[in-house]
Inverse folding.
């Protein structure tokens, strides 16, 4: 697979879920990244979040092996069990994930999931793990959490294209680090909660065609007025 898009190449161009989200935020930054190889500067990884994800996967895998509900599912009245599937490890792999070749554009869309739950009617629900530490009520209302919703909807689209019956609701398993303890005592306590979300992936197909059109263009889209990176570059140029 080519790292940068070249319309002359015949093999599929691999496009991750996160790059689709980048396009939705700022087509200009997406073009620089996927067409010209000029990526947005990245910060350090969130090691604590990764540790929480890894432990949650191990915990839900225990119930997956038993074909039993996790106690958190019982608490929230979710009639499901963690899905046992031979492809689970591939779907969780960041470099493979769940994949679908969009033949009209020859774009290979992929994304790595956290978990899949099988509902009582045989459909599957997309599950994403999130970590935070806040005293506020956890909701999906924050503007920056639109990316979370798009993430869920792209996964739903991918599994639909792979022939799975998708439950209308997906679930975010939230781990909220508690700061009201008297001391750390070598451990961090969490409150676990589940937020359901009914996705609408009808936008995904159009976005893929728009991405393909953008990649074929010889001219980059205009900088977005709402993009912090475009704003930084614009202001930096004025200092010359």
């Amino acid at each position: 697979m080519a790292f940068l898009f070249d319309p002359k190449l015949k093999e599929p161009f691999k496009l991750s879920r996160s790059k689709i989200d980048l396009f939705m935020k700022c087509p200009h930054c997406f073009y620089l990244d996927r067409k010209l190889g000029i990526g947005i500067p990245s910060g350090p990884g969130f090691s604590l979040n990764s540790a929480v994800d890894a432990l949650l996967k191990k915990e839900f895998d225990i119930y997956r092996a038993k074909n039993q509900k996790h106690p958190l599912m019982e608490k929230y009245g979710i009639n499901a069990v963690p899905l046992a599937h031979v492809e689970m490890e591939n779907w969780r792999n960041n470099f493979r994930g769940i994949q679908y070749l969009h033949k009209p554009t020859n774009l290979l869309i992929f994304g790595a999931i956290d978990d899949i739950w099988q509902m009582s009617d045989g459909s599957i629900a997309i599950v994403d793990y999130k970590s935070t530490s806040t005293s506020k009520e956890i909701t999906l209302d924050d503007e920056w959490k639109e990316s979370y919703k798009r993430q869920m909807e792209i996964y739903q689209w991918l599994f639909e294209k792979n022939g799975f019956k998708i439950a209308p609701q997906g679930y975010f398993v939230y781990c909220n680090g508690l700061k009201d303890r008297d001391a750390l005592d070598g451990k961090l306590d969490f409150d676990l909660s589940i937020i359901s979300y009914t996705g609408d992936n009808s936008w995904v197909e159009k976005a893929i065609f728009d991405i393909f059109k953008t990649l074929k263009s010889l001219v980059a889209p205009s900088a977005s007025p709402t993009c912090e990176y475009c704003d930084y570059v614009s202001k930096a140029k004025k200092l010359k």
